[in-house]
Amino acid sequence: MVSLRYIPAANWVISATTTFTDDRVVPYIERITKKDPHSGQLVTSGPVSIRDSNWLMGLTVSRQPHFAQQKPNELVVWTYGLFSDLPGNYVQKKIADCSGIEICEEFLYHVGVPEDQIEDIARSANTIPAHMPYITSYFMPRQAGDRPLVVPAGSTNLAFIGNFAETKRDTVFTTEFSVRTAMEAVYQLLDVDRGVPEVFDSSFDIRPILSSVYYLNDEKSLLELPLTPPEKIVVQRLLKHVKGTYLEEILKDQKLI
């Protein structure tokens, strides 16, 4: 058994999901992201770090509704703290010692909610913390052989599943990895004649990257992006240079021109 004393004090160990049931926090998120969280578009386009947070708190607001059964009046925000050894700026406690309400209060403080409104908004929301003592171990360097195969050689009744088993070409920290390893285990041990869905073949393929540029910018072409005048000149020269080439076809296919 691995002792908890080997977990460093300043680490990412807590995240929380907050469901707001009214729109009082919306203006503050909108001021930071320049987007209406209820617009149906990407809001933060990934994690946003709060640099002056003692916890190095981060937030993510995904495209809403985030869940299929989410109500129209609800807004789901994911937060986390990368430093667990310091008290917060508003809540004078370490993040690992905080309740869901206190984590929400710290978030509201950092996005600019007036202090006389913080407690009321936090208590009206539903914040669920998650304790993840080994979450960063997903990202440790590793090589073939460091993790067990899903079905070890010679095994007839034992399999390893989840993000700490080894499967070909997949990327950890995803639901797909866990599901794919479970399918491998069942199909091999029970001799099920069925193929496991292949990992999306995106390595060294510029097309998924260009497609991501399009969708992460709310389906805008290159010339529709909020570029500075010099940046627009560079893009225009690039498009002129690739005209009539295969790269122009790729850009058109990915809706960037």
TrEMBL record:
One of its GO terms (molecular function) is FAD binding. InterPro entries: FAD/NAD-bd_sf, Oleate_hydratase. It comes from the Bacteria. Transmembrane segments: none annotated. GO terms for biological process: fatty acid metabolic process. Pfam families: MCRA (PF06100). Gene3D superfamilies: 3.30.9.80, FAD/NAD(P)-binding domain (3.50.50.60). This is Myosin-cross-reactive antigen. It comes from Lentilactobacillus parakefiri.
